[in-house]
Design brief:
single chain, 663 residues, mainly alpha, Na+/H+ antiporter like fold, 2 domains, elongated
């Protein structure tokens, strides 16, 4: 019971750390988690909290590496394959051997293989820790992409190298040919098992999908259980479970490769769950790292180890400096020009310095160290394991300090947030691109549904463009007219109810659409979305069961056209009384154009042919296109990181609302 209580406290610590990081953005979340972990270690319940190395690999490394494979961009992977292999394999092996020899010279009591074993774990950067670097420092986008891809592959290489060294130490002796053979068996066997299991899962998921079994919970459960199962199978055959699950994670990206329909919902469901798991597990490792610090320092300071505490500090700083220097020199020699000299050019020396300082160690590194067994396969104890843990802990903390404290000083985040007017211009461009892309993708089956969604995006763009055309006074007047339009639309909805065009449930439904029609509108709480969706589901069922919606599929078009005509008549009346109003003139032009567009759509497609399921698929596709365009704008340098994040958050909330309203 104590174990579960401490685990729950650790989960709460992860939540608390990220909340604090939002209020104190200058301090990176991993550092806060380590600090809270230190505090937890003083609780009596946590005094003897420990996770064995077998469970450490299974619980933490397996899912995190699988998620790393899922997150790989196949496009970037192919484009950067040479650079990724260079940094994730060659650089890591060079770092492991050189720093291992340095550590052996600093601690003569340690064996060469044990020293290289430690350095093989410390040579890898952590992909989640690297992701956080982007939030605190100004690193060129392409350089950041190389860092992210390198970190994912380096984690895999590092764990294989570490396991190979452990196997050699637990065998008959440390011979080069034996080590190479062990490495090849670990790698090749892991690739084979990963390919077989990954393809097997792919075929199972595709079979369920084609048979119409598309329940999100079922597909998500298969995805969550799979990496643990795959890791256990690989371990049973004495091959690299890390390689197996990493390859299987890459294969999983092909499972829902369609860009429409249920595939998008299933893919989004899987990504959301894995994002949650990755966030939680990564946070728990940092908290656990913090919990180990006081006990480790106590043992070190009070001479319970074979090393003086001041000498241990010097070793940590020297090893950290050597790792940093090797990364800098190697990137200076081999860093490709396209990652630093194309979009926003910087010198190669600066790019190499940023690359070296951005290589944060983190959760995977500590998980790998935590997975070193106290007793080897041949029955001997792992030499100086406590001292190795101290050094590893120190190097991780130093690397986090370099990436999260010193790097922001060298490359501070520039306050490049766009002005409100610039943001409006970007959003207009995005909305119009979405509408154009939808039109280009429309088929004969989805033409009517595409017209509805494209109309909505163009309408949002028109609203923003009107604001851009006027001055501040016009903008204020436009807001006032917009508020009147909302009231007029609701008046017309009541009149339609009175004329029996819609019923009371229809009134609630369309009033909600009117309230949500502003593209600036977004919810700020996932909980509020869940509550809102619960009630909207009940309303949707009542609307779906009403005779009016069951028998008249063109209700949406009918109400939209009626509202447009009613608002246009009201605007014209207002304009007669105030002919100098620029805002009224702009809105009249907008609604005249909207009415002509609606009439065109009605002539082009019979509204009765609108299919609700196809409409939802097109809406999902529109959100996916919007997200893609936002990412492209960010990569092209048009959108700063924080602005892109805000726009993506809006899309995520819209996606959540859409998915919630369908079930």
């Amino acid at each position: 019971m104590d174990f579960l209580v401490v685990l729950l406290i650790m989960v709460f610590a992860v939540v608390l750390a990220d909340i604090l990081a939002e209020f104190v953005p200058a301090i990176a979340s991993p550092l806060i988690k380590i600090g809270i972990g230190i505090a937890i270690s003083f609780l009596p319940l946590a005094a003897h909290f420990h996770i064995s190395h077998e469970y450490f690999h299974l619980i933490f490394i397996a899912p995190l590496v699988y998620y790393g494979g899922m997150e790989i961009s196949r496009k970037d992977l192919w484009k950067m394959k040479g650079s990724i292999a260079n940094m994730a394999i060659v650089l890591l092996l060079i770092t492991g051997f050189i720093t291992g020899l340095v550590l052996k010279s600093l601690i003569p009591q340690i064996t060469v293989v044990a020293a290289i074993t430690l350095m093989s774990a410390l040579g890898s950067t952590d992909h989640i820790a690297v992701d956080n670097v982007e939030k605190h420092s100004s690193v060129p986008h392409r350089l950041m992409e190389l860092l992210k891809n390198e970190s994912v592959f380096a984690e895999v290489t590092s764990v294989i190298f570490l396991q190979t060294c452990i196997n050699v130490m637990g065998g008959e002796g440390a011979h080069l040919d034996h080590a190479v053979l062990e490495f090849l068996i670990e790698l090749g066997g892991g690739l084979l098992v990963g390919a077989i299991l990954g393809i097997g899962k792919f075929l199972l998921v595709r079979f369920l999908y084609t048979q119409g079994i598309k329940k999100t919970p079922l597909h998500t459960l298969i995805g969550v259980v799979f990496p643990f199962f795959a890791y256990i199978i690989a371990d049973h055959f004495h091959v690299s479970g890390v390689v197996a699950i990493f390859l299987a994670g890459i294969i999983s990206t092909f499972e829902y490769d369609e860009k429409v329909g249920e595939a998008i919902r299933l893919d989004n469901g899987a990504k959301n769950v894995w994002s949650f798991l990755s966030f939680t597990l990564d946070g728990l490792i940092f908290v656990y790292l913090g919990m180990q610090i006081p006990h480790t320092l106590e043992a070190l300071i009070f001479n319970h180890m074979e090393m003086d505490h001041w000498w241990a500090l010097w070793i940590i700083l020297i090893v950290s400096g050597v790792i940093l220097l090797i990364r800098f020199l190697w990137s200076l020699l081999t860093l490709p020009k396209y990652v630093y000299a194309e979009q926003h050019p910087i010198s190669k020396v600066r790019a190499s310095l940023l690359f070296a300082m951005s290589g944060a160690r983190g959760a995977i590194t500590w998980a790998a160290i935590g997975g070193i067994p106290a007793v080897l396969a041949n029955g001997t104890e792992f030499p100086m394991l406590d001292e190795i843990s101290v050094i590893a802990m120190g190097v991780i903390i130093v690397s986090l300090a370099v990436s999260y404290i010193f790097l922001p000083i060298v490359a501070p985040v520039e306050n490049k947030s766009l002005s409100p007017k610039q943001m409006d211009e970007v959003r207009v461009n995005i909305f119009l691109q979405v509408a154009d892309s939808l039109d280009a993708e429309a088929t004969a089956q989805t033409r009517a549904e595409t017209n509805i969604v494209a109309f909505r995006y163009r309408d949002w763009a028109d609203d923003i463009q009107m604001t851009l055309l006027g001055n501040k006074e016009t903008a204020k007047e436009l807001d006032k007219v917009h508020n009147k339009i909302v009231e007029w639309q609701k008046e017309n909805i009541k009149q339609l109810k009175y004329n029996n065009v819609i019923d009371i449930e229809g009134v609630d439904h369309f009033n909600r659409l009117i309230d949500d029609q502003n593209p600036n509108h977004k919810r700020h709480s996932v909980t509020s979305i869940a509550i809102s969706n619960f009630f909207s589901k009940l309303k949707a069922r009542k609307i779906a069961n009403s005779g009016e919606f069951r028998n008249n599929k063109d209700t949406f078009i009918t109400v939209t056209k009626s509202n447009t005509e009613y608002v246009l008549s009201k605007l014209e009346d207002e304009y007669k009384a105030n002919p100098d109003s620029e805002a009224l003139e702009l809105y009249i032009q907008k609604y005249q154009f909207n009415l002509s567009r609606l009439n065109y759509y009605i002539e082009l497609d019979d509204p009765k042919n609108i299919d609700e399921a196809d409409l939802r698929r097109v809406e999902r596709r529109a959100l996916e296109i919007e997200n893609t365009i936002i990412q492209e704008e960010f990569e092209n340098g048009t959108l700063p990181y924080e602005d892109a994040k805000k726009l993506k958050t809006n899309v995520a909330y819209a996606n959540l609302e859409l998915n919630g309203s369908l079930h």
